[in-house]
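To: structure desk
From: M.T.
Subject: fold request, one chain
Message: Could you run this one when you get a chance? Sequence is below, nothing fancy, just the single chain.
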Amino acid sequence: FMHMQGTVLHNNADSLRDLVIINQEWLIKQLTMIIRDPRLHNQEVDKRMGKMASQQLYEDGLLNINIVPKIWPKLSNDVRTKLLALMRKLGLAFPAYLSNDQGQSVPGLLIPSLLPDRDVEMSERKLMSTGMPQTALVLGLYMSQQLSKGRESHMTKQHVTERCILPMGFMEQLVGLLVLQAQAVLSPPHISTMVLTRYYARIVFGNFEIELLRARDARYISITLHATEAAGLVAQVTRCCHQLILTRFRCLRVVALVKVTDNLLVPLVKIQAIASGASAATKVGKLKL
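Reply: Done. Structure tokens follow.
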């Protein structure tokens, strides 16, 4: 009840059940030791972190767990652990394995709001999985009343641009979730081979790759899947989108569109329905034979 009233901050997750924050200004102070613009809010903690760790955090959005005691030196290890768990729970951070100077994986965090705000050069977009078949998708977010009936079969880019919206932070959150999923199939699991920014991301899933692109004035996300069998990666992307909508963007819905031509987009569910129908028809035909 007190949490709902905003008097205290509490979460029922197992790792946070014992944490009750009665002074929310204290929490903001602790979080802004990490999440801030160092050009505007220079703090003593930058010196404690060291130049390399500070650059990695504020230029790449990556936090090495080993420097957390330097960020919160006056807090106990238990409180530091709970604060990091709270950041993960709120979507302020995602677990990520970083690469040290020896090429070894070290635990860290990806901070979505600190991903670099820069354009990516074409040389940085060089794919590791060359020669793979490509599948182009468009992700659009919309309010339930924004997509009119009669658009279930196909759409155009103009329709998506006019009707869809792209909330601040959605792209960064999606990148964080996909990186989390990708590390489960990487060996070693660090993210040094990936390119991660607010407007472009190249995420490696084993031998396959996903490219996400958001133009600065666009209201949708363009996705290119580089894989021999794209169905698994498509499922990963749509699952992450629905997770974000259920937990952080509840007033929105998402539609995944397959790019058929430069201007023609067909909903993914429509293609899947056609494919499953064709598959079923093939099976029935074989049975009759």
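Reply (cont.): The chain has ten helices and 13 strands. Let me know if you need anything else for the meeting.
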